């Protein structure tokens, strides 16, 4: 678990992160300090089995959030706002992120990274969702996964699709600056309801590291 040291600013939103197929917690560990430094309580989890499928990973994300809000150490709970929660994950963990967002519509944000799931229609999700994919991903090609998933999010309060230039599947399991920046901006905007971060999402960012960006602007 990762969380801000400063308690003078009140409580913080919580984020649970889950890795992908046959990956350990290390695949999402980079998100811990990255997000905690921006004012979030972060729980990066290992899965019950390295071969868990996306739905099981989503269930474990929700269990992680339940632990954060109910049974985590006092130092964590005193920093956490239990009404401001989000999920993120890589690969099959991205598929689990979609499942968790569908299952728990009270979540404030969901960010699947290079998501993999046999289900491509997520029209039942209402949670603001940022889908990220990579142009060079051959494990979860964007044309098969990220793009149709984004297009299906017709009920999401807000949605966006970011395609990272030259990113392979494993890029999302490392500390890529642009991936982290987009994640932070989405969480700050929708978990913290901080409208100052909308400028980084809407209108579409023009970073040279993006080959495509689509969204449902405006979010205000």
UniProtKB/TrEMBL annotation:
In terms of InterPro entries, this protein maps to: AB_hydrolase_fold (IPR029058), FrsA_esterase (IPR050261), PET_hydrolase/cutinase-like (IPR041127)
Catalytic activity as recorded in UniProt: cutin + H2O = cutin monomers; a butanoate ester + H2O = an aliphatic alcohol + butanoate + H(+); (ethylene terephthalate)(n) + H2O = (ethylene terephthalate)(n-1) + 4-[(2-hydroxyethoxy)carbonyl]benzoate + H(+)
Q: Where does this polypeptide localize?
A: Periplasm; Secreted
What are its E.C. numbers? Answer: 3.1.1.101, 3.1.1.74
Keyword Mitochondrion in annotation = no
Alphabetically list the UniProt keywords: Disulfide bond, Hydrolase, Periplasm, Secreted, Serine esterase
User: Per its record, what are the GO molecular function terms?
Assistant: cutinase activity
- Broad EC category: hydrolase
What is the first-listed, main subcellular location in coarse terms?
Answer: periplasm
Q: Name one Pfam family in it.
A: PETase
Domain (PET hydrolase/cutinase-like): give its ranges: 1-218
Which spans are transmembrane here?
none
Provide the Gene Ontology terms for cellular component: extracellular region; periplasmic space
Record-linked SUPFAM superfamilies: alpha/beta-Hydrolases
The family note in this entry says: Belongs to the AB hydrolase superfamily.
Protein's name in the database:
Poly(ethylene terephthalate) hydrolase
According to its UniProt entry, this protein's organism is Actinomadura rayongensis
